[in-house]
Structures are given as structure tokens and as C-alpha cells.
Amino acid sequence: MEAKDQDSKTGSESQPESGGGANPMMTGMGMMRKMMAQMGSGGEGPMAMMQKMMGQMRNQQAGEAPNPMQNMMSMCMGMQAEMLSALHTTTSMAAFATPELHALFATWMESLEGEALAALAQQGEVDTAALASQLKISEASAIHLVAQLATKGKIHLRAQASAAPAN
Q1: What digits encode the pLDDT tens for the residues 25-78?
Q2: Helices (H) then strands (E): counts for the chain
Q3: Number of folded domains in the chain?
Q4: Does one domain contain both 109 and 84?
Q5: Using a CB cutoff of 8 Å and minimum separation of 24, what contacts does 46-55 make?
Q6: pLDDT of the residue at 13
Q7: Distances from the Cα of 67 to the Cαs of 53, 59, 159, in angstroms?
Q8: Are 142 and 128 in contact (CB under 8 A)?
Q9: Is residue 83 part of a domain?
Q10: Comparing C-alpha atoms, which of 126, 41, 39 is closest to residue 79?
Q11: Domain of 74?
């Protein structure tokens, strides 16, 4: 099996900017990108952004603009409000996860495990992208499935560096 960088894959599949609170880490990263875009960082690193903010604060006169700490606090509070909204959405969805739905999901996962094991028995070795395509699931789901099978001792994993470095 070829290990892929899960964060780079889930980042393209998850839409944190659109309020999809499925992955809290990606939601937070989306909010950080949004905040940096609003501040006009132009892709600069965090240190450059902080230096730019400090320069702006030095250039402002006390009577012209509100306290810079208030600006920073309101920005932090806005981020917290977005995170709480995402958590609320996740909690609301979890409330509908009845025992029957849990059982159906477990049955479906067992079926996928069987299909994955059959594919591996037939092909010998396969990467997660090909397995995902064959099972008609996302590559992130295939990675999760393979990890579950390895945890249960049903398969052995082999990791290999990607051709291109992941950013």
C-alpha cells in the first residue's frame, strides 16, 4: 500500500469555508486562511503578517482608529463564533445517529472491508487511489478503511515516499 498525506487530501475534499463542520482541523485551517486573506497578507508567513500588523499599529494615531487590541479581540471572537457554529452543526448531526444507523454503517463497513480484502487478494498490492476507485469511495475513506484493516491484523501496510513533496 502506498501511504498518502491525509491532510492534503482531506483539505481538497472538505470545504471549511462553506461551513461544513465535518473536520474541525480543516475548519480551523480554512478560518486561518480566510483571516489571513482579510488582513491582506498576500501569502506571507505568520511572522511577516505579525510584522505588518505591528507596523500598521505604529503608524496609526491613537485618536484615528479603535484600540488595536480591540480589533484583535473581535477577530478572535469571530473565529470562536465560527468554530462554535461548526461544533453545533456536528453535534446536531450526531443527535440523529440512532443505534439503527450505527448498525447500518457497521454493516456497510464490513462489506467494504470484504471488497477491499478481495481486491487485495486478486491484485496482490494496490495503492489507495486505485482501491478507492475500485470501491467507489473517496481516497480519504480508502485510507481509513486500510488503516482499520491493518489495525485488525487483516493486512500489512507498506509505506512509500510520494514522488512530489506534499505542502
Answers
A1: 777 677 666 666 655 545 566 666 666 666 666 665 445 556 767 777 878 888
A2: 7, 0
A3: 2
A4: no
A5: none
A6: 42
A7: 13, 13, 52
A8: yes
A9: yes
A10: 39
A11: 16-95
The average confidence (pLDDT) of the chain is: 75
Q: Are residues 91 and 102 in the same domain?
A: no
What count of Cα atoms within 13 Å lies in the side-chain half-sphere of residue 135?
30
User: Which amino acid is present at 163?
Assistant: A
Conformational region of residue 91, where left means phi above 0, alpha means psi within -120 to 50, and beta covers everything else: alpha
Using left for φ > 0, alpha for ψ between -120 and 50, and beta otherwise, residue 165 falls in: beta
Instruction: Give yes or no: residues 52 and 112 share one domain.
Output: no
pLDDT digits (tens, 9 = 90+) for 77-122: 888 888 888 888 888 777 788 889 889 999 999 999 999 999 999 9
